[in-house]
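Worked Example 4.2. Consider the chain below.
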Amino acid sequence: MKRVAVFNGSLRKESINRKFAESIARLASGKLEFHFVEIGDLPLYNDDLMADGVPASVARVKAEIEAADAVLFVTPEYNRAYTPAIKNVIDWASRPYGKNSWSAKPSAVIGTTPGATGTAAAQNSLKGLLTVVDTVLMGQPEVYFTYKPELFDAEGSVVDASTRNFLTAWVDRFSAWIERTSERKTQDQAGPAR
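Applying the procedure from the previous section yields the following structure tokens:
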């Protein structure tokens, strides 16, 4: 099963984007393994902080990205843009020069908000950055989701049939995208056999 590193751009304890991603993780069970990466402990990007080596929290995040088969960005929309937390993790993991952890990773972007546009502006802005850092971005289907609590039960599972069908179809497409676009490692790249 493919492992997906999930980056939630909201650091709020009650983040609806975190709840939304967890709901999708339930739908993906048996197809994809979602691993939620902690990014709230990253310092604000500053190259000077690497004078004595990569900070421990950054090294941890880079290792989690590199261990994943794909990455998923779940973004709220702040002032028609993605969040500073997402920009920060993208910048850190693309450094130091020549050690870009995002390189060739299959990726996707989703997001939710109570508003009618469902983070469309934030996602479209983020997509440009993800191609710059060399992720292999899935363009379709897009998920601009208007969050309504009645679509989910108390545990966060999707209870609305049309919503479940839509999100399950997205999971299936993302799973297929990962299979199709993952770089196959040669024996030399994979390292010695164990």
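Helices lie at 16-28, 56-67, 84-93, 120-132, 161-181, 187-190. The radius of gyration is 17 Å. Compare this with Example 4.1 before moving on.
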